[in-house]
Amino acid sequence: MKSQPDARPERVLATLSLLIIALISLANVVVRYITDASFAFTEEFSVFLLVVLTFAGASVALRRNGHIRISLLERALPPALRRVLIVFQWLCGATVLSLIVWFGGKLAWEEHQWQSLSPGLGLPQWWYIAWLPVLAALMLLRLSQQCLDRLRGGLSDEP
C-alpha cells in the first residue's frame, strides 16, 4: 500500500500552535482562579496561533487530499475532461491563494513600514501578519502537489 502524502512542517507547526494555545489557556485559567487576575497576552496570542493552526491544518489537508469536495461531476466525465476540470480547480484555488500571498505580503510590509503595534500587547503588528503570506504560499505548494498527484492518478477520490 502506498503511503499517504505528507506535509511535515505544517503538521509540526499546527501541533505546536495547538499545544501552546492549550498551555497558555490552561495557565490563564489557573492564574485567574487563584488570583482573580488573568494574563494579558493570552487572547492576542491565542487568536494569532489559531490562525496559524487553521492555515497549517488546511495545508496538511490539501496535501493529503482531505478537503471536502463533491466529485460526482469528476466521476461522470471522461478522463480527458476530468483532467481539464482538475486543472480548472487548481487554477481557481491557486488564484485565491496567490491573491492572499500578494495582498498579505503587501499588508505585512505596510504594517512594518508604518510601525503599527498590536492593540493588546503593543508588539509590532507585522509579526502576526507576516505568517499569512508564508502559510498561504505553503498552501499553494500543497495544492499544486495535490493537483499533480490527481492528474497522475495517484490520489483516490474515495476516503
Indicate the topology.
Elements: H1 8-35, H2 42-63, H3 72-76, H4 79-114, H5 125-129, H6 131-151
In brief, what are we looking at here?
With 159 residues, this protein is mainly α.
Helix proportion range: over 70%
Shape label: elongated
SSE topology string: HHHHHH
Number of strands: 0
Low-pLDDT runs of 5+ residues are none
Mean pLDDT across all amino acids? 91
The tally of domains stands at: 1
Quaternary structure classification: single chain
| Cα end-to-end separation | 14 Å
By secondary-structure content and strand pairing, the structural class works out as mainly alpha
Major sheet description: none
Explain this structure.
With 159 residues, the protein is mainly alpha-helical. The longest helix has 36 residues, at 79-114. It has one domain (8-69, 76-151). The protein has helices at 8-35, 42-63, 72-76, 79-114, 125-129, 131-151. Part of the tripartite ATP-independent periplasmic (TRAP) transport system. Belongs to the TRAP transporter small permease family.
Which keywords apply here?
transport; transmembrane helix; 6 helices; transmembrane transporter activity; mainly alpha; cell membrane; 159 residues
